[in-house]
Amino acid sequence: EAGVVQSPRYKIIEKKQPVAFWCNPISGHNTLYWYLQNLGQGPELLIRYENEEAVDDSQLPKDRFSAERLKGVDSTLKIQPAELGDSAVYLCASSLGQTDYEQYFGPGTRLTVT
Amino acid sequence: TQLLEQSPQFLSIQEGENLTVYCNSSSVFSSLQWYRQEPGEGPVLLVTVVTGGEVKKLKRLTFQFGDARKDSSLHITAAQPGDTGLYLCAGARPSNTGKLIFGQGTTLQVKP
């Protein structure tokens, strides 16, 4: 069974440029999460989807971050414009449902903003 | 405010030594999980504990959930270089369905 797929794995951009990350969850997993992780720290939730509905986006900086999961399968996270402080690893995870706390993570996208 | 406090934050030991990592909170969790993350990869789930006082073993790793479901520990016996990584605990709050609270992690380095 394929795991959570993320692309790109690495991205280097200049500040004020836009960037987008893509995630394909494990087949059959209804819940999808986007996390931000700084080096040596635990992941911090940005947004959680149940199918195509964003059920928790309270930690998403909505002035510059946006996300979508149009068909309830894969998802895109966008930053526009990027700032230096956005440099981090962006992790995508999925689980069977919102009552299933066992989350499966993708390898992440390491973003560097210069 | 960190809801889940992990200690120590960094640990560097020699191969063959034992170690314990702690995950503490003043809040009750309905379940608690431990993940290991290697450089350049996402966290990988090691175990889920749901019952107060529960002990689970995974080869040389022993996980315990506190009786009051507010804390947990991870003990590694005879650590090996392959155990090197970032260890994360994550808890599910009874009142917040679907959301995991992660600790800040413990970076473990096992030297050969």
What does this structure look like?
The complex is a heterodimer of chains A (114) and B (112). Chain A is mostly beta strands and 114 residues long. In chain A, 0% of the residues lie in helices and 48% in strands. In chain A, the strands form two sheets. In chain A, strands 2, 4, 5, 6, 9, 10 and 11 form a seven-stranded mixed β-sheet that branches. Chain A has a four-stranded antiparallel β-sheet with strand order 1-3-8-7, with no helix packed on it. Chain B is mostly beta strands and 112 residues long. In chain B, the strands form two sheets. In chain B, strands 2, 4, 5, 9, 10 and 11 form a six-stranded mixed β-sheet that branches. In chain B, β7 (61-65) and β8 (71-76) form a beta hairpin. The termini of chain B are far apart. The A-B interface holds A 4, 31, 40-45, 48, 50, 55-56, 91, 93, 98-99, 101-108, 110 and B 31, 33, 35, 40-45, 48, 86, 88, 90, 92, 97-100, 102-105, 107.
Q: How would you sum up this structure in a few lines?
A:
By secondary structure, chain A is mostly beta strands. Chain A is built from no helices and 11 strands. Helices cover about 0% and strands about 55% of the residues of chain B.
Fold blueprint:
The complex is a heterodimer of chains A (114) and B (112).
Chain A: E1 5-7, E2 10-13, E3 19-24, E4 31-37, E5 44-50, E6 53-56, E7 65-68, E8 75-79, E9 88-95, E10 104-105, E11 109-113
Parallel strand pairs in A: 2-11
Antiparallel strand pairs in A: 1-3, 3-8, 4-5, 4-9, 5-6, 7-8, 9-10, 9-11
Chain B: E1 5-7, E2 10-14, E3 19-24, E4 31-37, E5 44-49, E6 55-58, E7 61-65, E8 71-76, E9 85-92, E10 100-102, E11 106-111
Parallel strand pairs in B: 2-11
Antiparallel strand pairs in B: 1-3, 3-8, 4-5, 4-9, 6-7, 7-8, 9-10, 9-11
Short key terms for the protein model shown above:
heterodimer, A: 114 residues, mainly beta, B: 112 residues, six-stranded mixed beta sheet, 11 strands, 0% helix, globular
